[in-house]
Amino acid sequence: MPDASSPPAKKSLHVAIIPDGNRRWAKAHRLQAWQGHQKASGVLRELLTWCKDNPAIGTLTVWGFSTENWKRDPELVAKLMELLEQHLKEEMVSIHERHIHVVHSGRKDRLSPSLATLLVTMEEETKTYDEFTLHLALDYGGKDEIVRAVRHMKTPDTVTEESFRSFLDHPELPDIDCLIRTAGEKRISNFFLWQGAYAELIFLEKFFPDLTITDMEEALAEYRKRTRRFGK
Asked: Of 15, 66, 93, 167, which one is least surrounded by beta carbons within 10 A?
């Protein structure tokens, strides 16, 4: 048994979410598409609280907007960006109170100046918090991240997995352990191709706005049943 006086084990599990089905949820409820994303923000708030309080989870990655999402209706994209910025501003006090470290992966140059500035501010103001990380993927695509990493490399002829990793957006974060996707879609859709190479995939039928903490508990219970061999 561990010494009762020893420090608790570090929260190490990296859980990632592809929150799919917001627009379909809205359509099913005869609402406008952006209202599905608005409902999803409340679910994300509950999910973040649960993950932060879970003694095993150290990182939560959430895909808020992909590099391909720019192809959607411009009015919907603009509204979604507005909702994202509003949600993050509303969560700032809670993030500080709960000592949540916030980092962003993806491009900032195509985001609105105010949202990009907000992300930089959140990253800077929370950088000393080391117990739990909220990893936001906004204007993010796995292929795009890899291409950007290659462009920053100066000596590609001597590249190794270790050295290549250092050029990714956040090489300090652990690889994804458990990837959960909602709405019945069974693919990873260009989501953290490098960091998710050995992630256990769990697909849920529910639309993200209907996701509950019980669903998350069951998903992690399923994850714990699996044997991760990493090719061995």
From this structure: 93
Residue 190 falls in the annotated catalytic set: no
Q: What is the pLDDT of residues 62-91, one digit of tens each?
A: 999 999 999 999 999 999 999 999 999 999
Catalytic residue among 20, 139, 169, 177: 20
Could you tell me if 214 and 231 are in contact, meaning their C-beta atoms sit under 8 angstroms apart?
Answer: no
Domain boundaries, the chain: 13-37+51-224
In 172-202, which positions are buried (b, 16+ CB within 10 angstroms) versus exposed (e)? ebeebbbbbbbbeeeebebbbebbbeebbbb
The predicted model scores a pTM of 0.92
Q: Which of 3, 22, 69, 73 is catalytic?
A: 69
**Active-site annotation holds for 215:** no
Fold classification of 13-37+51-224 is: Undecaprenyl pyrophosphate synthetase (3.40.1180)
